[in-house]
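hey m, so remember when u said the tokens were messed up on ur end? i reran from scratch. heres the input so u can diff it against urs
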Amino acid sequence: MSETVAGAGDRHVSIDAVRGLAVLGILLMNIVGMGMPSFAYLDPTYYGGSTGADLWTWAVNNVLTDGKMRALFTMLFGASAVLIADRAERGDSLGALQTHYRRLFWLFVIGMVHAYFLWFGDILVCYAIAGIFIFPFRKMSARVQIGIGVAILAVLLTKNVLAAEQLDGLRAAATAPGASAAAIKAWQEASMAVIPPPGMKAAELAGFGGGFMEALKARANVSMLMQLVLMPGYSLPEAVGQMFVGMGLFRLGFFTLGWSNRAYGWMIAAGYLLAVPVTAWLAWMIWKSGFEPLTLHRLEVWQQVTRPFIALAHASVLLLVVRAGLAQGLVERFAAAGRMAFSNYLMTSIITNLTFCGYGLGLYGKLSRFEQLGVVLAVWAFILIWSKPWLARFQYGPFEWLWRSLVRWSPQPFVRPAPQPA
């Protein structure tokens, strides 16, 4: 298969296919927060089942997809920022600077609407803010970009490890005989990050299982928590670090089949033979602890080390498939899904919103973790079926077209011109 698609803005099939894989894979984890109380995302004993098929669903996703598909999606955002800026400098009337920051502004606006009306786990707002920081560094050497990204991720890991240890200390002080009121209060405030407050589960079940306004209120509460607490200290620095790595890997040709088969093979080996066993061991330790909150939190922190390697191993397998020309029909479907990743990401939220919330099918809290996989498969089928024929008729996905038109502040060509007879 050709690396690029002529007539499609010299799009790279390899990048589009990997992006398609990522947007599909993200749903395996997002579906938990979409269809059951949010803390179940971390702890299967909280809700959704923690035995049998439900436990195995948690375990497999924890090892292979949790944070990995998001990492891959984020790296590709960094790669796309470089690609779009390079194209803009070659003749776009707006120029690279205006194109980049206009895109971020409208991404932020759309992301806020998405977060409060559809899915509190929105990543678009975080991307819009993270993208502000990476643009000035887009022309640095690839190794420097990767070095900066790794340094940011290492600092974040250190911070989170120290915070996890601090939680252990706060609990010990609060539960010691004769603990002071100040120690107890400090533990209660800090433990909110790992132990959901009483009543949160019931409030989410009632909110998302109710009407539109009840769901809107419940979603706003969690969205504000995500954006004001989780994003500044964790999601945002992680996204910036991963975007830097993505920019560097794009410059080195990783996403455009610029590496040798042996190099991709080494990446697969690092991910599957080293990172996966370590992550599986951490998941086993979490299970062995009975999902004890502080143990779960501390071991999840260490999984940050292995996530990028597993993500890039997934990508490497698909890139080798693209290079070998295998499963071309499926690769074309993945690539079409990737070209419409923005639309497919938002359409996933629309579909799951109507599936789970009380003003839709009302399945919120009704399906176990394993049973939710049926919804995942249905959404995957929709994405893979509709993306390719849509792009055969239209130049962009519907939300890509909207985003592009807002950036240009004028409606962009949408319908593909009819082919001219020979």
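this time it looks ok to me. The longest strand covers residues 4-5. if urs says something different then somethings off w ur setup not the seq
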